[in-house]
């Protein structure tokens, strides 16, 4: 009996360690999206000031692309931005932007004018119409959309060079190969 | 070149740690003195090598050597020198190096000052220290090498997270780690005792000062972090039950329990298995605290160092160290039999109650912190456990602890009479009742927790003074005799008195700041006035200026009370262009009864207005002051002759003419 008491800490710890083991396999950043492997929800956004074309769900089929949710008010987007500019400079994949929840219609264009514009197409989404359809929880978020217009991956938070190399870029390459 | 030298020194330290972890333990088994003594030389050599390694990294930071990846990622040439230095440990890799540096400092201290320890115990404890060190060296060298070069070198660095560019946070990690790692001594000695199968008073006498030192450092570390959150995050709060805060609080709770149970082992030769268990738990929680921040297992607002890639290594390390220790405990623990009799109403009984409540508190904080993770593991979705849970669980556990604290300190060892102890506390009960009544008069709508908190604080404070008065026989002996006793009171007794009284003051502060905080958020144009907590804040406007590596938006408030000037507050919002981030610098004017606290936010409105947040935080100074008193108590107790390790043992055994070793 006495011996069993002394075994309790070990047993409790092993259970805890097992939970940790399972927990480690899950990226804390991943919040599963119900939209994975679903067709992009239909949306049509007006252009932001200074651009002629808006951005709609009909623009997506045809090639693999990224859809990036951003906003001039979003600090993390500012961190992510230089890397998007690099992706654009490298020309690896078209990036479309959804300028989300700007209170001032000039704020988004001014932000892009100041820090650079990596986007092929940009839609203005002050009322979160497209953002809600995409199930966006915060900015920045980036979706990989395949050539048939199906959402294949959702990245929550800034894309860093590591995340790009290890997660997003392999998916883009795989989708292109299909 | 220095960077390669630092890298090489660390590899060499690993090799020496392997020697230190094996040869002395074999030596202890075969009673081979030279093999055992190797542990001391090795521990000193490890310290010298890691200190050199750390010095090399710091050199790279101070000279802004951007050919080092770690420096380029975390420093910037325009940073003030203080933050170049603190930048050394302001990142994952450097902080791990700091961790092992402190580990080797403790190891070297045990080697240098442990001359009068039983040689087998010393050899085994130092070997265990070396095992821990091996794990960390491998972790650093294989997954988190701070000496990695960057080719080609960066033109300039990316800068340090501006939130970390702050004096409070510059020294928060070193103190926290001194606490965490300090508990490794109690751990190593416990493992060594399990291997030897013997725990006795001499063992406890060794473990106590190390535990007390670690506890004191951890208290300082946690408080610095809390203080930083208070003035830097600009939310007017000082504790958020955030997983990272909890991670440092759990070892503190367990360490406090250990501190008290080790006394029972020393004085009464019992509670041995429990004390060894607590030592393992405390260090285990310290490791968890180190790694919760690092592994990305838990997400929190302190997300500056999360990296899931290292998680597997960390988990492996935790399983080997903690799981291995518990396995050893399950195997050898039953042989640690206690000697003394045990009665519930006695000082040891009181200390046992203290242990039960503190460990329950630590367990519930652990549960609350890990529950979201566990739920997610079984597919239960994402949840977060917030302050309501912790307050609901923690406060009801602490209240009886505080009540019992005043009583327990009055109980003698072995067998006590609770009625006479309670009788001596009549004054404390009276003052506590008066405090509740006074609180209720001032705040008629005071919530129960506010009344209870103030009552408990008064009870504990006066109860502690009653204990002191009893020790010096105040009013029972002549004033001269009392004064003489007062002057010759052992420092350890002073330590307890100050620690308990300091806690009482801190409880009053925490209650005041938690319950009666006044908060006001508004848009203010220059010339407007707002009244918060009885003070009038006139907003005079805001202007922009430049700091060393940031730009400043500085606001100006003139504060008056009933027309009389009180102070002028200058809150700032700083923008760091290199890192592209902003920080808030709250302006705080501390008074005896509370802090006036002002924060300036973004421009708003059309007439040059700004969002402003103004708080009145009652009794915050009591909180910091109370903790400071506790820390002084801990330090004073450390200087007690009786804590100078092994002094009584030496007298008993040999007549070696070595002077009593100083405390590390």
CATH architecture field of chain A: 3-Layer(aba) Sandwich
Q: Which runs of chain A of at least 5 residues are low in confidence (pLDDT < 50)?
A: none
CA radius of gyration of chain A is 20 Å
Trace the largest sheet of chain A across and list its strands.
Answer: 5-4-3-6-7
Helix content of chain A: 25-40%
Strand % of chain A is 15-25%
Number of strands of chain A: 7
CATH topology of chain A: Glutaredoxin
Q: Shape of chain B from CA axes?
A: globular
CATH superfamily of chain A: Glutaredoxin
Which key features would you list for this structure?
heterodimer, A: 178 residues, alpha/beta, Glutaredoxin, five-stranded mixed beta sheet, two-stranded antiparallel ribbon, 5 helices, B: 664 residues, alpha+beta, Tick-borne Encephalitis virus Glycoprotein, domain 1, 21 helices, disordered C terminus
What's a quick, concise take on this entry?
The complex is a heterodimer of chains A (178) and B (664). Chain A has 178 residues and is of the alpha/beta class.
General description of the model:
The complex is a heterodimer of chains A (178) and B (664). Chain A has a five-stranded mixed beta sheet. In chain A, strands 1-2 form a two-stranded antiparallel ribbon. Chain A is elongated and about 80 Å long. By secondary structure, chain A is of the alpha/beta class. The mean pLDDT of chain A is 85. Chain A has a single domain, classed as Glutaredoxin (3-Layer(aba) Sandwich), CATH 3.40.30.10. The longest helix of chain A is centred in the first third of the chain and has 23 residues, at 2-24. Chain A is built from five helices and seven strands, in the order αβββαβαβαββα. Chain A starts with a helix and ends with a helix. In chain B, strands 2, 3, 4, 5, 6 and 7 form a six-stranded antiparallel beta sheet that branches. Chain B has helices spanning 2-30, 33-62, 69-74, 81-87, 92-113, 119-143, 167-170, 172-196, 201-232, 243-268, 272-295, 311-332, 347-377, 387-408, 418-424, 426-442, 448-471, 479-488, 491-515, 620-638, 647-653, and strands at residues 518-524, 529-532, 535-546, 551-561, 564-569, 572-576, 581-585, 587-590, 594-604, 609-618. Chain B starts with a helix and ends in an 11-residue tail after the last helix. Chain B is of the alpha+beta class and 664 residues long. Chain B is globular and about 85 Å long. Chains A and B meet through α1 and α2 of A and α11, α12 and α13 of B.
